[in-house]
Amino acid sequence: MPEIRKPATGEFLATVTHDSPADLETTVARARAAQPAWAALGVRERARHLRMVREFVVQNADRISATIADCTGKTLNDALATETFPAALAVGQYCKAIARLMKPRRLGRSSILFFNKRSYLSHEPYGVIGIISPWNYPFGIPFHEVVAALLAGNAVVLKVAGQAEPVGELFDEMMRYAGLPDGIFSVIKMAGAAAGPAMIRSGIAKLFFTGSVAVGKQLMAEASEVLLPLSLELGGNDAMIVCDDANVKRAASGAVWGGLSNAGQSCGGVERIYVYDKVYDEFMSRLDAIVAGLRHGVGLESDIGSLTTESQKQTVEEHIRDAVAKGARIRVASSAPENGYFHAAVVLEDVTHEMDVMRHETFGPVLAVMRVHSEDEAVRLANDSYLGLTASVWTRSTKAAKRIAARLEAGAVTVNDHLMSHGMAETPWGGYKQSSVGRSHGGPGIYEVVRSKVVVHDTLHRLPRNIWWHPYSLSVYQGLKSGLLFLFGTGSLTRPAHLVRLVGFFLSRLRR
Fold it and tell me: Is 267 a catalytic residue?
C-alpha cells in the first residue's frame, strides 16, 4: 500500500488504502438515500448539529493543527492561524446566515400587466455534493464548502488530497461527533487522477474542485458530457501594489506574510509586487531584512515550513532558474535546511513579464518585485495575467484604494492586507479569468450549494384563460399591441386610448 511521509522530515506518517469507483458509487447512493430526511430536518436542527462541529474543532485544535502540519510541512502557527481558527469562526457565521439566505421571498412585480401574479423565490439543496480538496489547505479549504453544503440540506462526499488523508480521517471523526445521520457525510479515498472522472460519474448533483487550472479544465470538459454543475477554485498569481504614500514598514511585513506563509503555497498569496519608485528603495531594504531573518522549520518558533511535494519544489526551482536566465537577480534569500522539501525564501528583482515567475503561478516562497512609476503602470501590469484570484493595494488614501481596487481584475481586493479574507466566512472567495468558476464563502458560497426555484401563483385562477392564450386572432394581436403602446409608447396623449383598448380586450377575452 502507498505510504504518506512528512514533507519536512521524510518520516513515515500513514499508509493509504484506496477506494474503487464502485465504492464511490455505493457511497453516493447511500448519501442520496439519506439526504431527503436530512433536508427535512429544517435549518435550525441542521445548525444544531453543525455547532457541534465547532465544539470538536475547539476541543481538538492542537491535534487538528498538528495533523495538518504533519501532512503539509507547514508550521503549527500557520496551521492554527489559517485553517483551524478560521474553521471555528466559519461555523457561527454560516449558522447565522443560512436561515436568512434560504428563506423564501416574494419577488417584486415587473409590470402592471402581471397584476394577478404572485412570485416567490426559494432555494433547495442539490442533493449530494462532491468535494475534491487540495493538499495546501487540506482542512481549511474544504471546511467552508462542507459546512455550507450540510447546512443547506445536502449530503456531502469529500475526497481529500492523497498527501492529506489523515486530515480526511479527522473530518470523518468530526462529523460523527456532531451526530450526523449515517450517509450524510462520507470521506472517499482515491488516487488523484482517478478521483475527478469517477466523482463526475458517481451520481453526485454538483462537484466542487480546488486545484490547478489544467486539472480544472479537464474536469470541466468531462463534466460537460453529463452536464454536471461545477464550482472551480483554481490558480492565482496575485499582485500587490505598494503606492508612494503606503506605510512601507507594514507593506513589507505584509508582503512576507501574504507571500511566504505556508511556504508560499497559497493560491491567493502574494507573488508579484509592484512598488512605486518613490518608496521602492525603502520597501526593498525592509523586505531584505525580514526575509534574511526568516527561520525555517515546523515548530512553534519557526516562520516558514517546507513545501509539501517534491514536484512543487521542482516547479519553484525551475521558475527561479528561468527568471535568473532572463535577467532577474536574487536580491536576498533565507537560510533553509537541506533536508525534506524545504526551500529558501527568495526575493527577485529586475524581473519582467516574460519570465515564468511573473506569468504563471509559482506556488512557493518567492517574491518577485518590480519598480513602477505610476498608478496606470501598476494597474496595467497587475492585470497582465490570465489569472485574477486576489490582489492588494497598500496606501494611506481611502480614495486611491477604492479607485485602484475598482480597476483591478481580481475577485477579491484587500487594502493594506493580503490573503486573510479567505479566513472571513462572510466574504466571497473566487476570482476572475481562469482563476475561478463560481464562489465559495459568504452568501454567494451558500448559493453555490443550493438550486433556485421560483413559484408563480395566479390570483385570478377562477377565470377561464389568460388573455394571450388560444385561440389567436387579429384582436389578440391588436390587444397585446395596445398593452405595449400603453406601457412604452412615446405619445403621452395616445396612451389613455391604448389603456382603454387594453382593458376592453382583457374583458372581452374573459367572457369567452
Answer: yes
